[in-house]
Write a structure and sequence with these properties.
mainly alpha, two-stranded antiparallel sheet, 42% helix, 3% strand, elongated
C-alpha cells in the first residue's frame, strides 16, 4: 500500500537515580510489546519458592532492574493531538486494570522487621549505595534471612492462602460486574429516552434535561450516541474500579 501512517509516541524512561523517589519506570507486567532478548538480559524475577527474597518487592525490583537499561515507547491512543504527556492515561492508556488488582495474594504482613525499600534495588549497583546511606543515617537495613522469610510467608498466608484469596476476589468481582451491567442498562435507557423525547418534543427535553438546554438537535443526538458507546464499550465505566483495579468503596455498593 502507498498509504503512509504516522504514529505519535513518547519515550518513557525511569529516574534510576531516585531523584523522584519512585522506582517505577519501564513497567514489565503491563499489556505491551517487549523485546524478549532484553528481558532475558535482565535476568529472572526474584521471589520464586525458596528464594530468600521478600515477595512484597518482587515487582518493584524487576521494574527497577529493567529501567536501568531500557525505556518504553508509549503510543498516543487518542485523536486529541494536544494529549502529549506519557503519564496521562487518557493519552496513552489502552488497557485498564480491573478485577481485584494485580496480586494473586493478599498483602497483609505489615510491619515485618525485614521489610524495606532496599529490596527494590537488590542485584543492582544502587543496593550497596542505598544500604550505605541508610547506615549513615542511623537506619541500617535488616534483610530477611531464609528462616525469617519462611516464617513471614507462613504467617502471611496461614488464614488466607492464594486460592482462597482468588476465590474471594472472583466473588467480589461478580458483584461489581453485575452493578456495572445495571449501570450500563441504565445509560442505554437514558440514551433511548433522549432520542425519543427529542423526536416528540425537543423543547420539553431541554426543560427536563437542563444540561442540554443550549444544545442543538444534532449535538443532543451526538450526546446520546456517546452515552450508548460508553454503555457498549469493553472498557470499565468510571466509578467502579480504581487505577489499580481495586473495587471502589468495597463490594457493598457504596461508591
Amino acid at each position: 500500500s502507498s498509504m503512509k501512517t504516522s504514529v505519535d509516541y513518547r519515550v518513557f524512561c525511569a529516574d534510576t537515580s531516585l531523584g523522584t523517589k519512585n522506582v517505577w519506570g519501564s513497567y514489565t507486567n503491563g499489556a505491551g510489546l517487549y523485546r524478549r532478548q532484553n528481558l532475558m538480559d535482565i535476568g529472572r524475577m526474584y521471589g520464586e519458592p525458596g528464594d530468600p527474597f521478600h515477595d512484597r518487592y518482587v515487582e518493584g525490583n524487576y521494574a527497577y532492574r529493567a529501567a536501568l537499561h531500557n525505556c518504553h515507547a508509549t503510543i498516543r491512543v487518542t485523536d486529541d493531538k494536544s494529549c502529549s504527556r506519557a503519564d496521562n492515561k487518557d493519552c496513552v492508556g489502552a488497557f485498564h486494570h480491573i478485577g481485584g488488582g494485580r496480586s494473586t495474594r493478599p498483602m497483609t504482613a505489615e510491619g515485618t522487621q525485614c521489610e524495606g525499600e532496599t529490596w527494590n534495588f537488590f542485584d543492582t549497583p544502587m543496593f550497596d549505595k542505598y544500604n550505605k546511606v541508610s547506615a549513615q543515617m542511623g537506619q541500617p537495613i535488616h534483610l530477611c534471612s531464609p528462616h525469617e522469610l519462611k516464617a513471614l510467608k507462613e504467617r502471611k498466608f496461614r488464614e488466607t492462602d492464594s486460592q482462597a484469596y482468588r476465590d474471594e476476589v472472583a466473588r467480589l468481582n461478580r458483584e461489581v460486574f453485575e452493578r456495572e451491567r445495571q449501570e450500563r442498562d441504565k445509560i442505554r435507557t437514558q440514551a433511548a429516552f433522549i432520542r425519543e423525547l427529542l423526536r416528540i418534543d425537543g423543547a420539553q427535553l431541554r426543560v427536563k434535561v437542563t444540561w442540554m438546554a443550549s444544545m442543538s438537535d444534532e449535538e443532543i443526538l451526538q450526546a446520546a450516541h456517546r452515552m450508548e458507546r460508553l454503555a457498549d464499550s469493553a472498557h470499565p465505566i468510571p466509578g467502579f474500579w480504581d487505577s489499580h483495579g481495586r473495587i471502589i468503596g468495597g463490594a457493598s455498593g457504596n461508591r
